[in-house]
Each structure stands twice: as structure tokens, then as C-alpha cells.
Amino acid sequence: MSTSAVASSVHSLWTTAAEPLDKIPAPHIEYVQLSPVLIVLGAAIVSVLVEAFVPRKGRYYSQVFLSVVALVAAFAAIVGLAAGGYGSTKAHIAAMGAIAVDGPALFLQGTILLASVVAIFTFAERRLDPADHGHKVDSFAAEAAAVPGSDHEKAAVKAGFTTTEVFPLALFAIAGMLVFPAANDLLTLFVALEVFSLPLYLLCAVARRKRLMSQEAAVKYFLLGAFSSAFLLFGIALLYGYAGSVSYATIAQVVDGSIATVNPALADTMGNDALLLIGFAMVLTGLLFKVGAVPFHMWTPDVYQGAPTPVTGFMAAATKVAAFGALLRLLYVVLPGLTWDWRPVMWGVAIVTMLGGAIVAITQTDIKRLLAYSSIAHAGFLLAGVIAATPSGISSVLFYLGAYSFVTIGAFAVVTLVRDAGGEATHLSKWAGLGRRSPLVAAVFAVFLLAFAGIPLTSGFSGKFAVFKAAADGGAGALVVVGVISSAIAAFFYIRVIVLMFFSEPKADGPTVAVPSALTTVTIAAGVAVTLVLGFAPQYFLDLANQASVFVR
Amino acid sequence: MENLIALLIGAPLLGAAVLLLGGRRLDKAGHWIGTLLAAVSFVIGLALFADMLGRSADDRALHQRLYTWIPVEGFQADMAFQLDQLSMTFVLLISGVGTLIHVYSIGYMEHDERRRRFFGYLNLFVAAMLLLVLADNYLLLYFGWEGVGLASYLLIGFWQHKPTAATAAKKAFLVNRVGDMGLSIAIMIMFTTFGSFAFGPVLGATGETSEGKLTAIGLMLLLAACGKSAQVPLQSWLGDAMEGPTPVSALIHAATMVTAGVYLIVRSADIFNAAPDAQLVVTVVGAVTLLFGAIVGCAKDDIKKALAGSTMSQIGYMILAAGLGPIGYVFAIMHLVTHGFFKAGLFLGAGSVMHGMNDEVDMRKYGGLRKYMPVTFITFGLGYLAIIGFPGLSGFFSKDKIIEAAFAKGGTEGWILGAVTLLGAAITAYYMTRVMLMTFFGEKRWQPDADGNPPHPHESPKTMVIPMVLLAVGSVAAGAFFEFAGFVEWLEPVTGFAHGHSPLSATTVTTATVAVMVIGVGLAYVQYGRKPVPVVAPRGSLLTRAARRDLLQDDLNHAVFVRGGTHLTRSLVYVDHTLVDGVVNGTAASVGGLSGRLRKLQNGYARSYAVSMFGGTAVLIAATLLMRAV
User: Which of A97, B66, B269, B395 has the most C-beta neighbours closer than 10 Å?
Assistant: First the structure.
């Protein structure tokens, strides 16, 4: 490219941007179709106002009420939209091409909302720790801004402060997650990513116990998240350079050659495959970071361990759903023409993720880290379904996400129950003999572990079977073999925990199992119910996922 | 009416569920619930029976299809029942005798703190046994077959605190597995041959099938029958099964479950009719067991084990009769029913004696009990007369018919079988008289029990006595009733019937039967009635000693199967330890080692994590570009 050409293109960029403003059409927003997101966002804003204006005493109850009502209303809106045919026949792209309203989007949003409702219940749990200075306490710091161990903190505890800000933060995060899998252009994708990531960084930092660890986790998460966002953003820029547009549909058309030029200003770079491939790989990095795929997974164990356990459960379930939704849309809508380019790369990622997660999990001694590595392995299994590149691949991933998120939240909710003087007793040695002391809790946890391991008659089996079948039908037989091998490796450490709980002698100074309030009980019961229902009678939900497996383009 | 069939099974099944899941709050009422539900089943059975009598002979079978049990295309089995005359006979026997034994158990198990559970198991047994005889396909029959096996296992080992009971239960279970294997293989062959499990398609298509296949099916069915009905060579478990509570011995190990093998063979009559070789083996097994059980029965001092030997021997009669084909099926079933009455009665009598004698089972420590337990004595005595075939009592009619049919088999076989059955009748008379004399006559040889309490024999409570009386009535009258009410005509539409042509006239056979019976009784009287019975058993002849050890069956099993199996296992364990474990442990260790090494990468520094991400992205980009370049 000659110097003059560069100069002229720069000039044309300037002139394009300097077009008169009246040419920008007034945005057309389909409020009804976007109502789930709008309800949650609206509630989040009201929630901030509650923090500002409602007296401290009333905040907890108003926040819990507001959050639950908003999430349920948003879910009702999803159901309404799906019943109105927006998941199938009336699927289209709303908000000036920014947000897709289609089957996968509605299914994933519904899953995120349901998971969020039960996760919010665990946020609101105040029965597990004994009251401090006569005030009920939850999992969050009295005042997150206070330096751990300082007099300021002690005063805040004494005054009975609680971080009710977690509710607006969670609502913002949920709103972002709702947009993420529905985003239909790269900028919306990025904005949604930031909208749900930033509140999560904060949520990780506000644990009541082990505050330093929690803050360290938050900082790590933030740094690495910012790093990955940078990759994503750079990738977006490159893709824009390639296609002259950030819209998924347009990029797809440029890729398959049905549009020659979009933006005359970018005539020099457009259609340059190097930009496409490098940009794609960088966007992929951003998404694989969020799903926790190897080698972008390293934040997962540290953050899962350090974050308050209710937040870990929420994050592990809802983030994964949102991120896989976005990944699916990117690969299936934007890059179907590139299948032969991305499949081998994703094969590699899936294999190292499955094996890496399962193998490293074996030597873990902390239950939260163990579950973190388990979530990495599960990300690998999900990637196998993504790679299938068939409609059944989409539906199997949708089903798997629904099944997995309930097991995960349930499992982390059980982790919050097992406590000793220092808070949650997460070291595995403390769990020895739990089955003797609290058979019910141990049995429930065993159900979740069996579901993680993919034992038949649990949702884990139905999900894994669907994903592997889709992968095998999609020509990824070798991947399925690796998947089964890593499932076998993974089964080892799940079963080891069961053995530990039921066949070891309890320790004398072992932890006690707190009796939770109805909130956590409901969460765990919902987890068990979904696990068993999707295990015994998965057909209805598989059909539902099947019907929801068509992306609008 | 056919809708009632499922209720027959449903009532006791409900009982089992309620009693086993209900927990301790049902301890007080459990036995009544169990008994009531067994009785409900019996009443429904009677209603169905009355209904069946109201219809013409070829229109008596009822069918009920509940749902498709296994809805796999090309492999379909229904939860469906068939109630014909054969099933009806069993239903009345199982629920009738079953109810009586439930009543008896109320008294017998009164002091057992786990009585509720006992009744739960009994109900489970009744339900499973009814399922076995009501199933309209072999797969469902197999379900019931395994169900009774389970109930039998649970009940033999009911007093699991006794190691002998636990071992006996395990033994019964293991030996039965061998037979069950036969049944499952038979069903597999059936499915591949006929493409179905249902009685109709399987039994209806025997005409178009090669004799070889039918023989194979028949032999496998026989293996199954041998296991369940304690026939040689799978008879070893029955004696030990007497470790269970006596009502269990009466119901399961005398009257009903152990006759399931006979049912199986008679039900599969079409297969055996078309496979004469299999039939011959059936008769041989029957004949051998008949003598085997009888000889063992002569040597046992344990009253229940003597009766167990007798059960084996009597079932041998039935199996033999079933092997004779259409000339024998009806009589096999007839003997089965009469035996159900008198053997159950005898066991209940034995239980009553034990109840009065501090649970002593050694007959050498009984003696002279007739004065102390008059009702038990009379009812047991009637059962005794019935089993030895005293003219006019039920055993006389049914056994006589089998002996006649054996002769009617014809040729040398007929003579041999006839002679064996006659010999068996003589030995039966001998060992039963021995039991009778040692228990109720002679001197008192009572010994104090382990705690030093001398026995105070007394008559048992009403709940125990009434069933004994009713069964005694059956022992007396059933044979004559069947003979004159037309049992043959009743069953003929199902099993078929052919008149045998015996080389000896009916009168000759009857006379001979009575004669050998008298000889048997006489011999026993000379040995045990005329001179006192020693409390400690004399050493005895070689045969006696062998018979006390169940004719060395256990030793044979031990030498061949247990030791052979142990050696096989040891060599497999060796291979497993060195080769398989080596590979497995090696893999596990290397995965574990890898895990430990990979774990070190997770060092907690955000900078290292960022490097990993950076490197990962670089590899992603490189790989993507490379893919395009290739």
C-alpha cells in the first residue's frame, strides 16, 4: 500500500464520519421483545436507588424481593415470547440489528434466569453463620471497602452493616448475561461482556470470611478479564477491518463472498483473510476465557476458590451459559463459512480442556478448586458439542447447559453448608465421614457428584450422551473417545469424594453441617429435582432444546 | 373378571410395600395387615375360581394385559397375565396355604421383634409366586422366579444373627443361580427361535421347530427346575434352607416355591412333548431324586431336615410324573397340590413341636410327645398317613396314580421307573414312621436347652393350631376330592391327558403300593418302635453315615466346584494382580503424576496466567493461519 493510498483512506474515513447527523435514522427498539433484558436492567437501576434511599434495615428485604420479582417477571416474559413464536417462526433481529430474538437466545436466557433465581436465594441466605453482635449475617462482608482486620471493619460488623449492594450488582451482571448470547453484532457482544464482567469482579471481592483471599481472587479475575477483553476488542477491530461491519450477518456474507464491498473506506483491508483469521482467533480467546477453556482457564480455580461460594455457584453456572451461547452464535452465525478453519483449532482446545481439567482435578484437595477443575473439564465436553457443527450439536449444548447449571449451583450451595469455626470447611479432609454424620446432605452431594460424573439416571448422563452423540454424528469420533477417557479420569475424583464421605471415619474435630433456611433448601432441592428429572425423563427437555436450536441470521 | 387378576398379585405386593417401607410404627399391626392382604388374595382367587367354573371347559382361560413392560421394538414383553385351570390350581394353593401359614406365623413369630419384616417378606413371596404362575410370558415368569428366589433368600437368612442361617441363605442363593442361569438361557434360545416370550407364540410353534432346539430348551428348563425344586444335582441347598423359620419351610420350601420347577415343566408341556430325549432326562432326574431324598430322609435326626429330604423325594415323584408326558402331567400337579397340604401340615406340626420344646430340632431328644401335644399329634399323624399313602387319604390317590403312570411308560423304562417309585413309596413309609415314632412315641428323651431350662411341652396357641387343623383336613380329603370331583377333566384342557396302558392292572399296582407301604412301616416299627431310641446317634452303617452327610453331595460340590473354582479364581487373581493391575495402576500413577506436575503450573501469579493466555492466543492464531495455509 502506497503512502498516498493510506492518506486517502484516512481521509475518506474522516469524511465518512463527518456526514451530517440527520442521516442517522432514529433507532427502532422492539420494547416487548427486549422486555426480559429491560426488566432486569430496570430492576437493577431501581435496586441502586434502593441502596441510596431505603433505610439500612429495610434494604435486605426490599432487595431480595425486588431481585426475585424482577427475575421471575423476566422469565415470564421469556415464556411469553417463546409462546408467541419468537423462538421459532417469528424469530428475528431486534434493536437495529443489535440483538437477536430467536430460539437459542430465549432458551439460554431462560436458563440464565432460572439459574439466577436459585443463585439469588443462596445470596440471600442468612442462617448459616451464627448471628454476629445480634445481627444476622450472610456470605458477604459487612463493608467491602473496609480494610480486612481494621477497626473500621470491626465497627461495621458491630453496626450490623451488610453488603446489600450484591443484589444490584448481580442484577446488572444478569442483564449483561442475557444480552451476551443474544448479541448480534460484535460491539453489542463486547458491551454485554463488560456489563456482566465488571459486577462479577466486584462480587468476587466481597466475601465475609477469608477476605484477603477473596480480594486477591477479584484482582486476578479483573486483571486477566481485562487482558482477555483486550484480545476480544482487538479481534473485533480486525474483523471490522476485514468485513467493514461489526454486524454478524454482514460479516458472514463477506466471508462467503456474497457481498463484495460494504464500506468503500475500507477497500484496502476488506477481504484480507489474514485479518479475518487473526481477528477470529482473538475474539475466540475472549470467549474461551469466559468459558474457562485450557489454556485460558487459569483464573478459574483461584477465583472459584476465593469468591464467596454463592457467587462462585452463580458465576460457574450463569457465566458458562452466557459465554457458550455467545460462542455458539459466533461460530454458527458469523463463521459457518469458516468451519474448516475453526474446527481443527477447536478440536485441539476441546481436547486439552477435557484432559487438562480432569487430570489436574485429581490432585486437588480443596472442594471448591476441585469443582473449578471439574467445570473446566465440563467446558471441554461442551466444546465437543459445539464442534459438532450440526443442529443437534446446538441443541445438545443447550440441554447440557441447562442441566449443568442446576447441578453446579446445587453443589456449591451444599458447599456453603459444611462449616467449621473458620467458615466453610472446604478442605477435602474435613469432608471425611460426612455421610455418617449428615447422611441427607452427603447423599444430595453424592447425587450432584454422580451427575457431574455423568452416571445414568442423572442429568449429567443425558447431557453428556447428547453432546457426545452430536459430536460423533458430526464426524468428531476421536473427540468423543478423548471425552470418554477424560470422563473416566474425572469419575475417579468425583467418586473419591463420595468414598470419602461415606466410607471414611469422621474426624473428631470435623465440620458441622449448618441447617439452612428455606432459601438454600429450595436451591438445593431444585438442583436435585432438575438433576433427577433430566436424568429419568429427559425427552421433553431434549425436544425443547431441539426446537430452540435454530439461529436467526 | 379378568381385571381382578392383577389384584391377586397386587394385594400381597401392597402388603410387602407397606410393611417393609412402613417402619416401626407398623410393628403392632404388621402381622394383621400381612395376613389380611394374603387372605384378600385368597378371596379374590376363590371369586375367580367360582367364575371359572361357571364357564365351559375350553373357555376358561382369562387374560389381562396391564401395560407393555419392555417396549423395545422387536423385543417386547408385556406385563400380562394368564389365568387358566393350571394357574388357578396354583393360585388357590399359594394363596390358601399361604394365608393359613400367615395365620400360623402370627403365633409362631410372636416373640420375634422383627415380626413385621417377616410378614413383609412373606407377602413379597406370595406376590412373586403368584406372578410366577400368572405370567403369560416366560420373561415375566422369570421375574416372578427371581422374586421367589429373593424372598426365599431373605427368609432362609431371616435369623441372620446365626451364622448357619446366613450361610444357608447364601448357599440357597448360589445354587439357585445355577438353575436360574438355565432358565435365562432357555428364554434366550426361545427368543432367537420363536421371536417371542409369550406362551402362546412359543408353545404354539413347537411343531415347526427342530427337535434339537426343543431338546436344548427343554434341558435348560430342566436345569432351572432342578435348582428351584431341589432336584439332583442341584438339591444341596434345601436341607440347609431349614435354617429359616419353620413357617417359611412349610410355605416356601415344601408347599409352593420348590414346586415351581414342576409348574415350569408342565407349563412347557408342548416343548417337552416334542422333545422325548429331554423328557427322558426329566424322568431320570425325578427318579434319582426320589430315591436320593428318601434315603437322606431316613438318616436325618433333625426333624426339619428329615422332612426336607422327604420334600425332595416327593418333588422327585412330581418331576418324574411330569417327565412321563401327557399320561403324567395331571398327576404331577395333583400330587403337587396334595403334597402342598400334607407337607405344609407336617412342617407346621414340626414347628409346633419345636415351639413346645425350646426350639429343639433333634428328634432323638423328643419322644412321648403325643400326650402333651394332642392336637399336634393328631394333625401331624394325619399328615403322616397322607404322605405314606394310607388308603383313602390324599397321598394315596395321587401317589398311586404316579406309580401307575410310571409303569405305563412302557418297555424297560416303564418297569424301572415303576420299580423305583414303588421302592420310594416303601422308603417314604419307613422314614416317616421313624419320624412319627421318634417324636410322639417311646420314652421321653428330653434334654435341657443351652441355658439349662428343661422343656415344658405344651399345645401351641390357637393361631398355630387352627391352620394345622385345616391343613390336616386337606391332607385327609384332598385326594379323594380330586379323584371324585374330576381333577383330570379340570386340567386336561391345559395340560392334555392320555390314558396310559400299564402292563399291570390298576388293582395290582394299588395292592403293591399298599404292600410296600406296610413293609416300610413295619421295618421302621421294628427299629424304632420296639426298642428305645438312643439319644446319641449310633455310628451307623456306611450308607447311613453318607446319608447323614446328604449322600456326600456337599463334599462332591466342594471338591469339584469350590476347590476347582478356588484354583481358577486364584490363577485369575494372579493375572489380575500382575497384569491387569499393573496396567491399571501404572496408568493411574502416570495420570496422577501428570496431574501433580501440571498442578505446579497453577502457581497463583496473575502474570503467569497472563502468559499462558498470551501463549494460548498465539498458538490459536498460528494454528488458524496454518490450517488455511495447509
Answer: B395
